[in-house]
Amino acid sequence: MPPTLVLVHGAWHGPWCWQPLVDQLPGVDVVTVALPSSGTDPGSLGDLTADADAVRAALTGVEGPVVLVGHSYGGIPVTEVGAAELGVAHLVYLCAFQLDVGESLVSSLGGAVPAWQELHPTHIRVTTPEAVFYNGVSPELTAQAVDRLGWQSTSSVTQPLSRAAWRELPSTYVVCEQDQAIPVAAQEAMSGRAGSVLRMDTGHSPFLAAPAELAALLRGVLDRVG
Predict the structure, then answer these.
(1) Residues 126-184: pLDDT tens digits?
(2) Three-state DSSP string of the chain
C-alpha cells in the first residue's frame, strides 16, 4: 500500500495553507490536520496536548504507512505523537521545530518569543506576517493568507514535549534557506537530529512560494518509504 502524506500546519495557520501543495500531488493520498491551538477565538484555543490528540486521531484514521510532515510549530505535535504503532514510517520537519524531551518552543528560543510576536496570557499574535512568513510568496497569495491567520495559544508554545519521535523513527529535515521566521542557523542546528537533510531556496512558506518544488521533494520521500 502506498504511503499516505499527513500534513500538520504551523502556528497561526490552518489546513488551508497546504492547498497549493495538495494541488501538486495528484495520485497521492493526503490528510491535513487542523490544530486546536490555532483559531479565531482566543478563549477556546487548545494546548500541545490537544494538538497531539488531533494528530493522533488523524493517524488512527489512516490505513497503511504514513509520512508525517510538520511545518514550523507543527513539528512539535509531530514529535510528541509520531510512532510506528500509529503507522508512521517517516517524519519530515519542514523548517520546523525538531525538539527533544523537556523542550518547548519558547524554551528553545531562550525563554522569550521573537519581537514579531505579541504575547498575551492566553494567546499570541503575529505582528508582521508578510515579512516573516511570506517572503517569496506572490502578493495575492500573501494577502489571502494574512486574512486567514488566527491566534496561537500561549500554552501550546510553552508546554514541554514528553517524547521525541525522531529518536525512534527515520526523519528528514528540510532547511528553507530564505526563512525569516526560523533563522537558518537554528534550522541547521535542529537538523542535526534528523537522519537526512534537504534544502529549499525559499522563505518560511514553501507550500505557497514553491509548491511544485516541495511536492517533488515530498514525492521523493514517499518513494523511499513506499
Answers:
(1) 999 999 999 999 999 999 999 999 999 999 999 999 999 999 999 999 999 999 999 99
(2) CCCEEEEECCCCCCHHHHHHHHHCCCCCCEEEECCCCEECCHHHCCCHHHHHHHHHHHHHCCCCCEEEEEEHHHHHHHHHHCCHHHCEEEEEEECCCCCCCCCCHHHHCCCCCCCCEEECCCEEEECCHHHHHCCCCCHHHHHHHHHHCCEEEHHHHHCCCCCCHHHCCCEEEEEECCCCCCCHHHHHHHHCCCCEEEEECCCCCHHHHCHHHHHHHHHHHHHHHC
